[in-house]
Amino acid sequence: MKAIPFMQFRGGSSKGLYFKAEDLPADEAERNHYLLLAMEGTTEGDPRQIDGLGGANSLSSKVAIISKSQSQLSDLDYLFVQVVVGKGKVSLTQTCGNILAGVLPFAIESGMIKATEPLTSAKINIVNTGGICEVVVQTPNGKVQYAGDAKVDGVVGTSAPIICNYLETVGSTCGTLLPTGNSKDNIDGVEITCIDNGMPIILMRATDLGLVGNESKETLEANESLRQKIEQIRLKAGFLMNLGDVSQQTIPKMCIVSPPENGGIINTRMFIPHVVHEAIGVLAAVSVATACVIPHTVTKGVSNYNTKNSNLSIEHPSGEFTVNLDYEFNNEAITVHKSGVLRTARLLSSGNLFIPD
Q1: Is residue 251 within 8 Å of 93, Cβ to Cβ?
Q2: N or C: lower Cβ tally within 10 Å for the chain?
Q3: CA-angle at 157, arms to 154 and 159, nearest 5°
Q4: Using an 8 Å Cβ cutoff, are 184 and 298 in contact?
């Protein structure tokens, strides 16, 4: 058996394994082979992940690979890897803002970065997309504080707040904020908005799909005709979004929007892309919030957006997610300077992971 040092963190409403890049093979194919063995126990694919550390769910089948940054613009490099449950493959085409919340705590706990009092801040280079996120962690007495009063919907209890300010996310995967060049497009008779402010997503009105928008995860996943329709839209939109053939990719995500029900600006149901998210991803929420402030997207007439409010509450099945957008318009063109979110994280375990040699 081969022993590999690791830590496991809950980051936001996800959970994953965190590694130093130096503890994994430099060769990408060999490294991905290790990660499949670590998460599933096999490279053939096991949806139960019974022989690995995965949780048999896309939200708990995630990996962060961390190294000191070679760039003067950032302190850490963060590579996100999604192990696709039961498929015997991994995806690097996206990033994860929830898992990012655990990156600085991991770097401090593993000795990569020295903590300062009472806060420690670091700029993190998101390798998958090239964006930069400034993360601030509470570190009284030079140690990461996990206990606190911050609440993240989709997570039981409260924890110390972690502030994540995304500095460069616009068009990070597709090249531009509105990758089709339009605020709205029409595919198969359904109006959509394609947008990328950190996460490429496609927004559709619930009413255009014969839905209310407050349906449960189980109800939506049991609707096979709906799932097929959404997937056909996704496949066609992939080419329009400069992503090419997305049939084997986990992006773009699909978002059904409807009027808010609990004081937010909009209600969402996220397909990620084939199962429904129990909440909403960090960067998906940022992209949804951005769509709400842009005129003439499919959110018009659906969202409760108020131009005087920069704190935008996105409703999802487990509660709400607040995004703080710093943006301005110039001749109807939007410039997003910064997207701020609050997350929490907790160290769950650390030690050696054993895989077959």
Answers
A1: yes
A2: C
A3: 100
A4: yes
Distance CA 160, CA 318 (A): 20
Question: Which tens digits make up the pLDDT trace of 284-310?
Answer: 999 999 999 999 999 999 999 877 667
Q: Which residue has the tokens 């089948």?
A: 61
Q: Could you tell me how far CA 356 lies from the centroid of its own chain?
A: 31
DSSP state, 85? T
Amino acid identity of residue 299, one-letter, is T
Long-range contacts of 214-222 (CB under 8 A, 24+ apart): 214/258, 214/261, 214/267, 215/269, 216/317, 217/269, 217/275, 217/276, 217/277, 217/278, 217/317, 220/256, 220/269, 220/271, 220/276, 221/275, 221/276
What does the pLDDT look like over 178-217, one tens digit per residue? 999 999 999 999 999 999 998 999 999 999 999 999 999 9
User: Residue 293, exposed/middle/buried by CB under 10 A (0-12, 13-18, 19+)?
Assistant: buried
**Which residue stretches of 123-242 are H helix?**
217-222, 224-240
Q: Which domains does the chain have, with CATH numbers?
A: 2-169+344-355 (3.10.310.10), 185-330 (3.10.310.10)
| Neighbouring C-beta atoms of residue 39, cutoff 10 Å | 29
Structure tokens at 167: 């500095």
The pLDDT of residue 92 is above 90 = yes
CA distance 341 to 332: 25
Residue 192's Cβ-side half-sphere holds a number of Cα atoms within 13 Å equal to 32
- For the chain, the straight-line distance linking the first and the last C-alpha, in angstroms and rounded, comes to 5
Average of per-residue pLDDT across 329-350: 92
Note the Cα 112 to chain centre separation in Å.
Answer: 24
Please tell me the pTM assigned to this model. Answer: 0.80
The whole-number average pLDDT for the span 130-138 is: 93
Contact 54, 83 (CB under 8 A): yes
Of the candidates 165, 103, 99, the residue with the CA atom closest to the CA atom of residue 132: 165
Residue 308: the pLDDT is 66
